[in-house]
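Researcher: Structure prediction, please.
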Amino acid sequence: MASTPTVSICLPSCDRPELLVECLDSCLAQSYPHIEILIGDDSRDEATQRLIDTRYADDARIRYVRNDPPLGQARNVASLFERASGTLVMLIHDDDYLALTAVERLASLWDLYPYLEVAFGDQHEVDAAGVIDPQRSATLNAAFHRTRTARGMQPLAGRTGLVQMFPNNGWMALAPLVRRVGYREEAAACCDFVFGVELCLAASHVYYLHEYVSYYRKTAVSISNSTRLSPRAAALVAWSFVVGLPLDASLEPARAMALRRLAPIVVSLRARQDAPRAALRIALAHPDAYAYGLSPRLYYHLALIARALLARGVRQRSGAPRFP
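Model: Predicted structure follows.
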């Protein structure tokens, strides 16, 4: 690969011009000079378009498109991938932002490993105001297996996606591979996770850089939060996706690890969605997710299941509708 490939930074945005400024400025300030920034705007009004026109009109690196009508998260991201002209593609969501040397550090890995397909690093966790929480940042990365011992080329690329080591953004990958995998609209709020798994399964050479390259903003307002009690909740989609994946035998331990992480979340959601029997089946099938009965979370979830079963019985006896 050429020593200075162009990197296409894909930036999907929706109704957050005040956050987009911080994200976009972090992209423009990159120490790596060979970039283009593609913005796909799903906003319901023209505030973001006016911002781009007034603040960034003279910067030729920016390629802005307003989607009218809006495409939705998955189709918006996929459209950015298709528009990208760079050799390498990077994704950053509009409420997050990049470390100033992120592109340079990730792109330089292709000089060391010309056969590399995918690279990613650690994420800082910041609050709504953008203040870094060092302890939560360390906990976040450790929870997703991004640790010193895991750094370097990944021995099983598919495992990296399955155990959610691969981040939701701040990664870099070969453009043809990214376009081939694409974002799946049917994955809804889970499209980042599904893409990460499928990208790593499609790749042979994935590198984890044990350095902070992006900032992940933790807020109460997100797609995953707004859909968490719906039938399309991210955890439920992720569960069905992981269960149904055709995998090589070498990746079955990674599938088991992914399901162990998801099982308690899915049990809780099913119990709250008036599907207590489904919740109980999953809880009983994955005792390792509850430390084989030693986790207090199990008994809390069993109480949720019992309450849902009792409520269902009361409704059936009274003839009340399932959802008032």
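Model: The mean pLDDT is 93.
Researcher: Thanks, that helps.
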